[in-house]
Amino acid sequence: MKRRSRIEKIVRHSCLFFFIFALSIVSPERSAADDQLDALLERTGRQTSSFLDLLSETNCTEHVLQEKLGENGKVVEKEASTYDYLIILSTEGGDLNLVESRIAPENSKEHKKLHAPLLISNGFATLFLVFHPHYSPSFQFTRDGEESLNGRTLTRIHFQHIPGMRSPAALAVRGREYPLDVSGMAWIDASTGTIAQLTANVDSGMEDVGLRTLHSAIRFAPVTFHDSKEAIWLPAEVNVEVETRHQHWHNTHQFSGYKRFSVNTKEQIAKQ
Q1: In the chain, beta strands by DSSP E
Q2: Measured by CB atoms within 10 angstroms of the end CB, which terminus of the chain is less buried, N or C?
Q3: What's residue 170's pLDDT?
Q4: How many C-beta atoms surround the C-beta of residue 197 within 10 A?
Q5: Helix (H, G, I), strand (E, B), or coil: what is residue 156?
Q6: pTM metric for this prediction
Q7: Strand 58-69 relative to strand 248-260: parallel, antiparallel, unpaired?
Q8: Dihedral of CA 59/65/68/70: which sign?
Q9: 184 pLDDT higher than 80
Q10: In degrees to the nearest 10, what's the CA dihedral of 104, 129, 255, 40?
Q11: In a domain, 200, yes or no
Q12: In angstroms, what is the C-alpha Rg of the chain?
């Protein structure tokens, strides 16, 4: 019996040694990956914060193409508009509030329109707020490898909204706002934390208010202002596709001619 007890102790000690040895091999690699992701998210959060301050100090020209699609996916109705566009930032009550302002130039056909637009799609240019420190605790982030876009190696970061947490996106229906559980992918320059491209989706859970699917894609492009040699990546194009119980919409927003309020010279988005 003593010999058996000793054998059992040896076996238990051997198992414990193997478990500790396995942890010593796996943990450093997993921890290193987690540290890299946390560092990237921190850089992106800082970049997003400074980017938001800059964006609220600029205005640009926005070209909007609104399209209604038929059952076969063909365009059955469309309307093109041009606006002076800017984002108004406020932090009243400790909350982060962004308001998009669209002003049609005087004497333009948009300024004289009396009928309602096909579909209003606001706020999609600011979906980068997913990575802002105010909203990032509401999301789960995972790294999804790397990809080359336009000659740049970018890190793909998948994000998933945590239900019940605050969201930077909402659906407005009959005067009421419904926070959206958005998920998607961002393509980020790991060295700077700059977002080059972002997609976001709502695929389920909103049938009770009529929304079946919502897909959006935001492309950023470098803008160089005359008082800075460093290029700033700002929204260049946003595509939004919405499907409800009875309708199918596709809107395209293009942003150009960025300028700061303090200067009179118009700065153009660099061509890709």
Answers
A1: 58-69, 75-90, 97-103, 139-149, 152-161, 170-173, 176-179, 183-189, 194-202, 211-223, 232-244, 248-260
A2: N
A3: 78
A4: 19
A5: strand
A6: 0.79
A7: antiparallel
A8: negative
A9: yes
A10: 170
A11: yes
A12: 24
Entry field: residues in the chain: 272
User: Rounded to an integer, what distance in angstroms lies between the CA atom of residue 141 and that of residue 62?
Assistant: 31
Domain assignment present for 144 = yes
Helix (H, G, I), strand (E, B) or coil at 17: helix
For residues 34-54, average pLDDT: 90
Q: Which of 125, 123, 101 is nearest to 51 (CA)?
A: 125
DSSP string, 175-204: TEEEE---EEEEEEETTTTEEEEEEEEE-S
Report residue 13's pLDDT band, with 50, 70 and 90 as the boundaries.
very low
d(CA 238, CA 254): 7
More confident residue, 22 or 227: 227
Domain membership of residue 177 (yes or no) is: yes
Q: Which pLDDT value is given to residue 113?
A: 52
Domain-embedded: residue 105: yes
Q: pLDDT confidence of 271, banded at 50, 70, 90? A: very low
Structure tokens belonging to residue 58: 């600029």
Total domains in the fold of the chain: 1
Going by C-alpha positions, the residue among 101, 62, 46 that lies closest to residue 235 is 62
Range of the domain at 63: 11-260
Share of the chain above pLDDT 90, in %: 41
Are the beta carbons of 142 and 36 closer than 8 angstroms?
A: no
What pLDDT score was predicted for residue 109?
A: 57
Q: Which residue type is seen at 4?
A: R
Predicted local distance difference test score (pLDDT) of residue 144: 95
